[in-house]
């Protein structure tokens, strides 16, 4: 009889398998437990800021038309702020205003003066940014804006269609302030938006839900906002059709929209134009005193750690690094101004 030795047990093989199994059990019992993820760098969105050309006019607009309340009015100058904002020889007047629980910062550069927003700016240009103000009644809000003769950016209020599961029923309208900054008023249907917007109120304008920015690549922006800064993704939708085109005043507009949130404060919303793709990039020579400049102030746990993360990710600095503020006139003691992948400015501040 012929014996097939290849089918017989191999003691050496059994020994190897036993040793491998023993090592796996040993490793499972000796490896440290998985460490919890580090807390996010950003703890809150403190305020959304914009550069204005005439502070008194802007304060009048936001207080009279949109019912914001002025809560502080200061002037700052000096080397610390020059380094922070990347503008030499500056003197800034900064007014903080509040609507509901949210804040905006208006900054007028008394010196040096910056450039106006390009007259042909469009909603798909990558320097585009707006704040979305929640209204309790779109019809009344639009009538009020017409009364004050605001400049339309949309043709009129738009109701997004019901086929769009994540955006259907939302009513929205874009308009501009005297400097050309885009502002949105927004009304959520009962099944959408933060529950706080559904609290009974006699106010017409309730607060700021988010600031929206145009991005060229949502994944690249997520690496900055989510992976580095610690924002969480709160929702996504793809919006298109005649209502969206008229809202943005961009023919053929098709947008991938991603909403992000920190632990508190208004959200940040990505507007990625899948079509048309001809939006212009953020001007490489833009500065904080130019009127197209917005800066969203984020509160961070540790400004030095934030700077290290920005540097490691090869994102752009406006400030040379962390700037220590000797007198916390603007309510933070350390800060740095940085740019996201598309050039939008963020003030990372440590209280």
Written account of the structure:
By secondary structure, this protein is α+β, with helices and mostly antiparallel strands. The chain has a single domain, classed as 2,3-Dihydroxybiphenyl 1,2-Dioxygenase, domain 1 (Roll), CATH 3.10.180. The protein has seven helices and 18 strands. Strands 1, 2, 3, 4, 14, 15, 16, 17 and 18 form a nine-stranded mixed β-sheet that branches. Strands 5, 6, 7, 8, 9, 10, 11, 12 and 13 form a nine-stranded mixed β-sheet that branches. The chain is globular, with a radius of gyration of 26 Å.
Write the layout of secondary structure elements.
Blueprint: H1 11-30, E1 42-52, H2 55-65, E2 69-77, H3 79-85, E3 91-99, E4 102-111, E5 129-135, H4 138-147, E6 151-152, E7 158-159, E8 171-176, E9 182-187, E10 205-215, H5 218-228, E11 232-240, H6 242-248, E12 254-261, E13 267-275, E14 294-300, H7 303-312, E15 316-317, E16 323-324, E17 334-339, E18 345-350
Parallel strand pairs: 1-4, 5-9, 10-13, 14-18
Antiparallel strand pairs: 1-14, 2-3, 3-4, 5-10, 6-8, 7-8, 8-9, 11-12, 12-13, 15-17, 16-17, 17-18
């Amino acid at each position: 009889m012929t014996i097939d030795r290849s089918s017989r047990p191999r003691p050496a093989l059994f020994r190897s398998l036993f040793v491998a199994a023993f090592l796996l059990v040993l490793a499972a019992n000796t490896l440290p437990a998985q460490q919890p993820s580090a807390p996010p760098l950003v703890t809150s969105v403190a305020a959304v800021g914009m550069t204005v050309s005439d502070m008194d006019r802007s304060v009048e607009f936001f207080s009279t038309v949109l019912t914001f309340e002025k809560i502080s009015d200061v002037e700052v100058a000096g080397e610390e702020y020059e380094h922070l904002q990347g503008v030499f020889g500056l003197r800034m007047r900064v007014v903080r205003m509040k609507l509901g629980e949210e804040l905006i910062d208006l900054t007028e550069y008394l010196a040096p003066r910056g450039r106006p927003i390009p007259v042909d700016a469009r909603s798909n240009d990558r320097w585009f940014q707006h704040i979305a103000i929640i209204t309790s009644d779109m019809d009344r809000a639009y009538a009020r804006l017409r009364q004050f003769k605001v400049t339309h950016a949309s043709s009129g209020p738009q109701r997004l269609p019901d086929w769009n599961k994540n955006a259907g029923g939302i009513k929205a309208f874009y308009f501009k302030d005297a400097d050309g900054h885009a502002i949105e008023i927004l009304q959520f249907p009962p099944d959408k938006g933060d529950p706080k917007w559904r609290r009974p109120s006699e106010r017409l304008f309730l607060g700021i839900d988010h600031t929206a920015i145009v991005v060229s690549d949502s994944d690249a922006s997520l690496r900055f906002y989510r992976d580095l800064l610690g924002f969480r993704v709160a929702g996504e939708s793809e919006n298109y059709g005649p209502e969206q085109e008229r809202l943005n005043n961009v023919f053929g507009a098709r947008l991938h929209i991603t909403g992000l949130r920190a632990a508190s404060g208004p959200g940040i919303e990505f507007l990625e134009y899948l079509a048309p793709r001809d939006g212009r990039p953020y001007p490489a020579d833009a500065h904080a005193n130019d009127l197209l400049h917005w800066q969203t102030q984020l509160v961070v746990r540790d400004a030095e750690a934030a700077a290290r993360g920005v540097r490691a990710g090869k994102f752009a600095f406006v400030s040379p690094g962390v700037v220590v503020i000797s007198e916390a006139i603007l309510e933070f003691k350390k800060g740095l101004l940085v740019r996201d992948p598309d050039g939008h400015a963020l003030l990372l501040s440590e209280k």
